[in-house]
Amino acid sequence: TSIYFLPLRTKNSIKNKDMKKSIACLMLATALAGCNNAAKQAQERLDKARAYYENNELFAARSEIDSLRAHYPKEFDALKGALTLMREIDLKEAERNIAYCDSLMPIRLHESDSLKAGFTFEKDTLYEEIGNYIWRQQTIERNVQRCYVRCGVNENGEMYLASVYFGGKPIDHTSIKVSTPDGLFAETASIPYDGGVNYHFKDMGNTTEVVTYKTEKGQDAIKFIYDNADKRIKIEYQGGKPYVIYMAEADKKALVATYNLATALSDIYQMTQEKRKALKRIAYLNHRMNKEAE
User: Fold this and answer.
1) Nearest-CA neighbor of 191 among 156, 167, 215?
2) How many CB atoms lie within 10 A of CB 207?
3) Which helix (H) or strand (E) holds 176?
4) pLDDT at 269
5) CB under 8 Å, gap of 24 or more: what pairs does 18-22 form?
């Protein structure tokens, strides 16, 4: 018959087993303590963010929430509270934006109404959804058969510049360079002939060319003329045969007035858009918050 020997449990083996249990318990306790500590710290961050919010320090509240999310991605209770607080911050910011727009809008409307006094409003209802304000002395019918730079602004505050050439022979220009006697200058973008924003026509043997530089395509030249309206400004027609004129004082005056009106109209348009966005945001946030509260 075979004889089997069972391993003997020595004092050392028992001691080692007890030590392993102790270490496991210690590790578990440490882990639990770490979890409790992380939860506590996350809650402290959330409380701090809430305090900033209550004090209307919304940027600081957002930053604190961002830190909470970055450092405690597993603290779900705190993160849930942070999400709720973030929506409250969004709501307060939207309400603040509306209040700002409502307070400033009447001022800018009054300013724009005063500035419009020297302008004519033009709009082709068949082809245009947005009309333009033109300085009265720069309307086309008052400026036939001459080379000059004209400008205008639409109802949304978008300003444009246009170079007009009139002469016996075409020069086929595509852009202009504006400069002052001290050597400073600015240029428009180059607009190739397309029959639209760059178009030509002939009348009784003479050629008229009109190139229009909208928004960013003309903004450098517009700002340059505005900032240097008290100086002599040279206009160089570029892209074809070279041609030079000097900007008339009346045309500089027209650009300055148009720029000022454009600034006011742009502010009004931006505030209108901002208020519309804020109202939509408030409606969305209230819907989400009410749904979660149910």
Assistant:
1) 215
2) 16
3) strand 175-179
4) 97
5) none
